Amino acid sequence: MKNLILLLTVLTFLFSCKSNPKEEYDICIYGGTSAGVIAAYSAKMLDKKVLLIEPQSRLGGLTSGGLGFTDIGNKQVVTGLSKDFYRRLGAYYGKLEQWIFEPKVADSLFNDYIKRADVKVLYKYRITDVQLANGYIKNITLESSDGTKLGKSIAAKVFIDCTYEGDLMAKAGVSYIIGREDNKQYGETYNGVQLMKGHQFPDGVDPYKIKGDSTSGLLWGISPAALSSDGTGDKLVQANKRKLNHYFIWSRMPNNKTDINNRGGFSTDMIGMNHNYPEASYEERAEIIKAHKDYTQGLLYFYKTDPRVPQELRDEIQAWGYPKDEYTEDNHWSPQLYIRESRRMTGDYVMTQAHCEGRETVTDGIGMAAYTMDSHNCQRLLVKKDGKYIVKNEGNVEIGGGLPYPISYRSIIPKEEECKNLLVPVCLSASHIAYGSIRMEPVFMVLAQSAAIAAAEAINTGSVQTVDIKKVQALLHENPLLDDSFSEILIDDSELDLSINNDWEVIKKQGGYGPTFLKSKVRNGSPVRFSPHMEHEGKYKVYTYYHMRKDISPAITYSISNGIDSWTRVIHKDSVRIEGQTTGEWIELGTYNFQKSSMPYIEISTGDTSGAVIADAVLFIPVK
Q: What gap in Å lies between CA 424 and CA 169, rounded to an integer?
């Protein structure tokens, strides 16, 4: 009997080890989003033992999931490996950079990052528990996402949560918020309840199943909740969606594909149906995702087939279909729900509207943002006007005009008393409205690279809170691709000394590269000169940032000198094609050989032009 008990004990122990083997790493990244891939690649390039965990089977998150018309704001904020990603897209499409792309191309590039760095990826595993000791995550427990494999236990010195939901952060007991803060909390004006005009119903739309009869009940999708006063905080999150005209925003992508976005009062946003998503179980989330898929497919089918839809619109929709070469494993439909916002960490430092507007700034920046303060609608409800109830959407905010601003390192780390070895570059510490400006995929990738560098440093210092941020900033500047390659040379107009040149006006507004650009004041004025310091001699491709404006000169003359020889290049307005959200594009001026001891420069002349001459940034890229 004793031998039988002993045998059973041994078998039980062996099975438990097999079902929950413990693996140990330097850095563990949870979430194979675009940020997760870049974080994992960065950590591996820093010679760390790395594990990337992706709960599903596809890498890249939204970037490979259909969000192919990139939200940027200002290209200056896209640096390091994030910029490298868009350069690699450019190489695929035959340009320097590409911001509009196909999902399958993004997917292949993310997998290439993993392959080149030899990153270990654990697919189809999701977190169920976190074990902490003395403020440190010791290990996390995983289960098979599809129930086909045994569970795992993962130990690491530092963890990075790159999910859109912040699941690792939440399981670790780190403070977070869901929904919108009251305006009073951080002295904001665009947070909380906002009843604005964007993506709105016109006045007079009746909310009832039988027009004018409140006893018939509300139409689908309309909440009976009362409208709170402007700026009031709540627990509502902005609408998610499945990524012609007056009903959809059609953002054209290469090869006759499109990134469809919400437009108007009733479109692809399934308003109010995702409020439970952040805290939902995995099974409940799957139901919410399916509901969004059914809604979007049903909406498209309705527009394609229903006789109540104008024939012209039906004919236009009929010309479209699912992409036959995309998402082949998911019946050509993206498996990625567009999670605009879920949990947001509450750290020691919170990014707010004041940062977006440039009224507050930080010195520990590890990335920048520049997008509009943007929120989609959060609820559809009744509003009383002229004695009658009508339907209105609430929550849409689109406030632009901000210039690039730094994002604090302290906003991606928890409070020290809560966790000492976790970084959160996606569900970072920001108010609802500030998060709406920060939450762009290129920015997430920048923050993820910074998080990986900080994680590597934290292994030495003992915690993410004791990292010397200046070391992180220095590495980002000196070795942006983490491969010890020669850095490109970028000179922005904001770096020039114009004290003795009064023929140019400094314009501080959106549209250019960085916070400013220069505009000529007079004809035949003094040229503006950009002079690079060449630390490495050799061939460089030279570019100028061309800022398209209605009043721009039909032709702008550039003089290029390597200190020995000189060349002239004229850029004609009609030859420039601007794609994407920004109004500027890098235009190549040619390839030239530069010596270390020479005095090279690029000059932009006003000449006898009939329009405005714009001088912005210039770029020198070493030819490999």
A: 7
Three-class SS string for 289-319?
Answer: HHHHHHHHHHHHHHHHHCCCCCHHHHHHHHC
Give the residue with greater pLDDT, 476 vs 266: 476
Count the Cβ atoms, other than its own, within 10 Å of residue 186: 18
Which range is least confidently modeled, 82-96, 240-254, 450-464? Answer: 240-254
Q: What percentage of the chain's residues is helix, strand, coil (to nearest 5)?
A: 25, 30, 45
- Examine the pLDDT at 429 and tell me if it is beyond 70: yes
Q: What single letter denotes the amino acid at residue 413?
A: I
Q: How far apart are CA 549 and CA 583, in angstroms?
A: 8
d(CA 42, CA 44): 5
Least confident of 9-13, 165-169, 297-301, 564-568: 9-13
CA distance 24 to 213: 64
> Please, which pLDDT band fits residue 11 given cuts at 50, 70 and 90?
very low
CA separation (Å) from 191 to 13, 359, 438, 443?
53, 16, 15, 21
- CB distance 604 to 565 below 8 Å: no
Distance of CA 466 to the CA centre of its chain: 27
Least confident segment among 161-175, 258-272, 410-424 = 258-272
Cα 328 to chain center, whole Å?
Answer: 25
Show the tokens assigned to 442: 């290129």
Contact 342, 168 (CB under 8 A): no
Dist CA 425 CA 412 (whole Å):
5
pTM (two decimals): 0.93
Which residue shows structure tokens 């409070």? 415
For residue 179, the one-letter residue type is G
Express each pLDDT in 540-562 by its tens digit: 999 999 999 889 999 999 999 99
Q: Which H, E and C letters describe 168-211, residue by residue?
A: HHHHCCCCEEECECCHHHHCCCCCCCCCCCCCCCCCCCCCEEEC
Mean pLDDT score of the chain, rounded to an integer? 92
State residue 161 phi and psi, 5-degree precision: -95, 110
Token digits of residue 100 = 């509009």
The runs of H, that is alpha helices, within 269-411 are: 282-305, 311-318, 353-356
Helix then strand count (H, E) for the chain reads 13, 30
Neighbours of 405 (CB within 10 A): 25
Pairwise CA distance, residues 107 & 552, whole Å: 38
Q: Mind listing the pLDDT tens digit for each residue in 56-81?
A: 999 999 999 999 988 888 899 999 99
Q: Structure tokens of 173?
A: 């007991």
3 state SS of 251: strand
Burial of residue 498 (CB within 10 Å: 0-12, 13-18, 19+) is middle
Residue 2 has pLDDT above 70, yes or no: no
